[in-house]
Amino acid sequence: MNKYMEELTQMLQTGLEEYATSEKYRDLLRVMSLFHNYSANNCLLIALQCPHASYVAGYTSWRNNFHRQVKKGEKAIRIISPVKYKKKNEEDEEEERIGFKSASVFDISSTYQIPDMEPVQIGVEDLQGHIENYKDFLHAFQSVSPVPVDFRLFDGDARGYYSDTEKIIVVQDGMTERQSVKTLIHEIAHAMLHTKEKLQEHKKDRKQKELEAESVAYVVCEHYGFDSEDYSFPYIVGWGGTGFQDILKESMSTIQKTADQIITGVNQYFENNKN
Question: Rounded to 10 degrees, what is the CA torsion of 250, 255, 256, 262?
Fold first, then answer.
């Protein structure tokens, strides 16, 4: 392992401890919402080095693909990048393998538009999750749900639930649009992650299941501009409690991958249903 990879590995280990608090955890989830297709480790590295980051690219990519120049003296954000290489096996045959190396990227705030070059729209999805898109988003989220969704009134204080026995998600009818969407995403995360079959492979207590589902809901809501902060963070902190750091270490990658799966599916739904 080279010097830079050793530094990044150490940064990840100490960074996880730093972000295992309610305030810092919010910053990490915000970065995940912006970089949903990055690995959980790279999201943490970006959050540690540039908490305000909104869009990153390599030095050459900024110039060639976005017509922007990195400002002189700007410090790079170091992330981990996969690299393919070939190595001979015991039979003296070459095999393709994957390793990892340190790579440098820069946030858009470290760049400027190159004069006389055509401005390029930076990778922000057209959809911002405004409330007037409410019904469209409901259809989109239902399209990525692994089970049917039913909006109806039911007794109790719960806003929604996923029934693994009946293979259905039920959302309390009559709530605000924002709360309905957030609850639906939360239950979709349960349906994706916490089936009987998956829990037999990897047991999780209720605390961990709720932390994963609510964190996924926050990342997705943040990505589309649905503000759920007033509800999500007291809820997350309440379920995290003692052992939050251990749970976060185990679940961070799961949260990132599930949020990316939902966001990618929703974006594809809108792409397929353009007028």
Answer: 160
